[in-house]
Amino acid sequence: MTATTTPTGTTAGTTDSTSTAVFERRESDVRSYCRSWPVVFERALGAEQTTEDGTTYLDFFSGAGALNYGHNHPALKRALQDYLAQDTVVHAMDMFTPAKRDFLLALEELVLRPRGMGHKVQFPGPTGTNSVESALKVARKATGRTDVVSFTNAFHGMTLGSLAVTGNSLKREGAGTPLYHSMTAPYDDYLDGRTPDLHWLERVWADSGSGVALPAAVIVETVQGEGGLNAARAEWLRALADLCRRFEVLLIVDDVQAGCGRTGTFFSFEEAGIDPDIICLSKSLSGLGLPFAVTLLRPELDQWEPGEHNGTFRGFNPAFVTATAALREFWSDDTFAETVRQRGARLREGLERIGAEAGGAAYRGRGLLAGLAFEDLSRAERVAAAAFDRGLLVETSGPDSEVVKLMPPLTVTEEELDRGLQLLAEAVRATA
């Protein structure tokens, strides 16, 4: 190929196909992860990603939680390859297909019925924010009320409705318009135990003179993945569920990141023993990283008129196929969940050891959604950069990016987990 000069003065040609120049030249400045990891990833398997130049990284990022079963799990990849090889339906809107039927049967058999859940399944679109938007809309439609309560440091998505119940100021500013019909309450332990966290909500809901209207719903994450790995206690979640029930306010659990096994049970709220009215699922639901989301809602809340909420890509059959394969491969019994719980305990032990050695760092999270919160607000970013230099992919979270966040695949081996912890310990020491 003969090299040519582009209008911006960049030389394009043979070298351009193996560089990052085209990303810099054409991709929007909104890109973020590639700024922390300025390499070109080419191959991936299990808990590892490999770049074009052959450098391998241990991936404790897992596609922001979209790859709970690791990269290219063979059982899931084989199911997709077999499906596509038969000229089967890929795009189907909300029409009936065998792939959709198989998914619904597997979800019913392996997840819903064993937990006594009669929830209907809505396919709102391919992403987590699609699920949240549909949850907010149906809660308002079913109750006739407009406001929704969310919590400090919550993150629920990037579309306007989801942003209205998100706490992060940078992301809210990206809306470019005022965000309406939401109010924020303190998350578990936000007030450091000085005042019961739910006391304010109970007081204003009970007081007709408070000026606070009874909301349609409360939306909550049991572990705030983007908000700093704040993990709500089971007793706090039970108190919240009881409060909502007493005042006939719907309870929405956003399980987009913490669900699909990340905390050691399929749903993150199972440990608390609560029964949400509406549940949002996405990210790892497809199993292989394909875009897929569902909204689970109690049958009496399913008050939609046909077509009242729709979307072009709510019937993506390849995702149905890999999701079904994931449910049958990992959730046919409790064996996989028990392994995840064991790995979660091992991760916590390792992180607490690193935090104690470092000083000024505390464990946060639950299961395999965990990390270290640093008192020095600038240190987590430096630790993440040092980890990348040593071959480990981790990100940061929290309002000041003060938390190093680890999300290894749920299929991680003990050897991989220990290796990742060792690399993290080296990165922490290097930034002391």
From TrEMBL:
<dbReference type="InterPro" id="IPR004637">
    <property type="entry name" value="Dat"/>
</dbReference>
<dbReference type="Pfam" id="PF00202">
    <property type="entry name" value="Aminotran_3"/>
</dbReference>
<keyword id="KW-0663">Pyridoxal phosphate</keyword>
<dbReference type="InterPro" id="IPR049704">
    <property type="entry name" value="Aminotrans_3_PPA_site"/>
</dbReference>
<keyword id="KW-0032">Aminotransferase</keyword>
<comment type="pathway">
    <text>Amine and polyamine biosynthesis; ectoine biosynthesis; L-ectoine from L-aspartate 4-semialdehyde: step 1/3.</text>
</comment>
<feature type="compositionally biased region" description="Low complexity">
    <location>
        <begin position="1"/>
        <end position="21"/>
    </location>
</feature>
<protein>
    <recommendedName>
        <fullName>Diaminobutyrate--2-oxoglutarate transaminase</fullName>
        <ecNumber>2.6.1.76</ecNumber>
    </recommendedName>
</protein>
<dbReference type="InterPro" id="IPR015421">
    <property type="entry name" value="PyrdxlP-dep_Trfase_major"/>
</dbReference>
<dbReference type="InterPro" id="IPR012773">
    <property type="entry name" value="Ectoine_EctB"/>
</dbReference>
<feature type="region of interest" description="Disordered">
    <location>
        <begin position="1"/>
        <end position="22"/>
    </location>
</feature>
<dbReference type="InterPro" id="IPR015424">
    <property type="entry name" value="PyrdxlP-dep_Trfase"/>
</dbReference>
<dbReference type="InterPro" id="IPR005814">
    <property type="entry name" value="Aminotrans_3"/>
</dbReference>
<keyword id="KW-0808">Transferase</keyword>
<comment type="similarity">
    <text>Belongs to the class-III pyridoxal-phosphate-dependent aminotransferase family.</text>
</comment>
<dbReference type="InterPro" id="IPR015422">
    <property type="entry name" value="PyrdxlP-dep_Trfase_small"/>
</dbReference>
<dbReference type="GO" id="GO:0008483">
    <property type="term" value="F:transaminase activity"/>
</dbReference>
